[in-house]
Here is the input.
Amino acid sequence: MYKIIVLAKQVPDTRAVGKDAMKADGTVNRAALPAIFNPEDLNALEMALSVKDRYPASTITLLTMGPPRAAEILREGLYRGADAGVLLTDKAFAGSDTLATSYALSCAIKKIGDFDMIFGGRQAIDGDTAQVGPQVAEKLAIPQVTYAEALGEIKDKIIVIKRRLEKGVETVSAQMPLVITVNGTAPECRPRNAKRLMKYKKAKTISEMSNASEDYITLSNERPYLQITEWGAINVDPDPTQLGLKGSPTKVKQIKNIVFQAKDSKIITTEQEIEDLMKELIDNHTLG
Amino acid sequence: MSNFYLDTPELKFHLAHPLMQKIVALKERNFTNKDQFDYAPADFEDAMDSYDKVLEIVGDISANTIAPNAEGVDAEGPKLENGRVYYADGTQKNLDAIVQAGLMGITLPRKYDGLNFPIVPYIMAADIVSRADAGFVNIWGLQDCAETIHEFADEEQQAKYLPRISKGETAAMDLTEPDAGSDLQAVQLKATLIDGQWYLNGVKRFITNGDGHISLVLARSEEGTSDGRGLSMFIYDKNSNAVTVRRIEHKLGIIGSPTCELVFKNAPVELVGQRKLGLIKYVMALMNGARLGIAAQSVGITEAAYREAVAYAQERKQFGSSIARFPAVFEMISRMKAKLDGIRSLLYETARFVDIYKAYEHISKERTLSAEERAEMKSYQKLADIFTPMVKGISSEVCNQAAYDSLQIHGGSGFMKDYPIERIYRDARITSIYEGTTQLQVVAAVRGVTTGGYLAQMREYEKVDVKPELSGYREYLIAMANEYDEAVQKVVAHNNNEYTDFHARRLVEMASNIIIGHLLILDTNRNHSFWKSTDIFLKMAHAENRGKHEFINITNPGDLGKYKVQE
Here is the structure.
């Protein structure tokens, strides 16, 4: 059996981008886009569940950092087979870039304690950085395997992983504990399960319980699985200077709206034209 | 992310029908399960919220797994290897998703690992899945067999088989044979009792999902008999390995659903319930459930056909305009929508009737029903008995018409494999044939005509209060009911069964037009968005009934000779 942590993020569904997806200042208009479970994090959850299928005594803890409403994706994960959820939420985390996020997550992971594998999506569809997984591994000083597509043999503390790279597939074996970031080409996550949904639909974080009825509080005490763990900064004992805006070296200088202007595609046929195009692409740093 | 439940608000509307309060209370025995099972509801709102959220899962899998797989499944179909069936790749993926989502054993009690849902949300799931792939719904919908096992098999058999179905094993109902199709009394498959163990020998044909894990089999247990009274029902477990699939039929539609010819060789089986009641009691119950399922399938296919028609008509430009703007096209589309709303309303009305009487039936095994409860059970059972053949017959015909019209709107493109309507059109065709042809539904439904059952129910609908702006429609329907009654009296006055049968379909259709009209008014009364369909349907129904009434007026038994096929 293995102890597994899955990192997940609630993101605006950038695939549903409409006219009002951006605000005038060039930032994402989160209110106009539905909040969803980051797609590659779902691939990561599925990979974790596949380990649990093989070793049913394994446990999966889903960890997310975000505003209180990110508890939605924790319930979503419970419906699909995760055993527990942890929400990391605090005003102190606001404005975190990937480094500050990775730091906060690594603190929470230390607090969760013992683990064998950490899975996460390759990247989130809002930022597309693919930095958080690797940075978490660095913060925890453990190995990382990125672009995972499938798992091979798992024996004792060694795991075989198939990686999807640009020009092919690489199979590696790695030592646990480790971080694995999962590619979108990995199997899609299984659906929500009806019975699990009915069991966990009333699960809430402490913030969500703030205006709960007496009846609900009684129920929640009788059924501890309805209590979703919620931690603020204070619970994970971080270095305050590495949190939020303060801990984020990324400074946004400017955001521009890009409108694609080319209307027709160009068809090139001669060697010379291809060479010219390559040169142009290299010169303007599209390639290389 | 598209979702076939959330994108069709009519479904939520029907789920929220006022009668659900009673249905849920009965099904949940006043919520006594809540302390035993962590997924049991605590009260009515909790139960309804669970149905809603689980249907959202069904809508998600339907839109994002089953529908995208439909084309590939239709092209590939199931395969037969060494007497075993292998589903098309997409079918297997659909089934995996359904099983992972825990959507088998939906109506079974929790003690058998079921979800203990009423028929209404189960039928709604069938409606949604059918829109995605009408062939797949057959494999999934055969969980109906579990309901029959639950109703008639003994405790031990229930405990043995039902949890297996809840966990994802598939089922089959093995009824028809080469010489026993519509006429099941002619079933020949031989059941022999040797030292307390039953064995089956013989052949079954046209068996949907014939290689399923658990099969209900109709066989002749009484040697020397030749009618329905010599037939019993048995459970066959695939693990016995004594039935082989000889052939998978090559079909026009629902290609993903394997239709099998089965050979039983000394297949060990268990008797269900009592000997000799196989056809007359158990198959009748099984078929009623299956007919409601086919009605749901028909509604789902109609939804798919309607959506394809709207999408194509809006996108296709001819003569400088989208063809949806032409009266010839929008008339077809609006008629399709009015009928779709109508048959869906009839479907859920019937499902509610079935729910109430089935719940009472199960409760009656736990305790004695009060006289009042017994009377209520009987009255809902009577309604279910006349509504089930009506909704199966009418909705399957509407479904075929919708598929035809939708393909027509696509023009030449619809005739090609480039658009889904070509598959939908082929899939639709079976709905008015299997689980009893429309002609056989009419044979069952005409009892509702001759005994006055439909008329009595129309009179009940007339008594329900509606908003003043709907009273005009109500008056319209009262006049139609009088006209219908007149036509019925005129036919039965001849006291000639052959003549009654000659007009039976017409009379059942007249009755269904009026009943659907009432249901649409009641829907509009609850939600104004149905008013267009109500208006369109009522005018169409009124004109149709007028024509049928007129035809009955100008015929008499003496005309029958002219219609008969020369021998």
Q: What stands out?
A: Chain B is about 60% helix and 10% strand. Residues 99 and 168 of chain B are 5 Å apart (CA to CA).
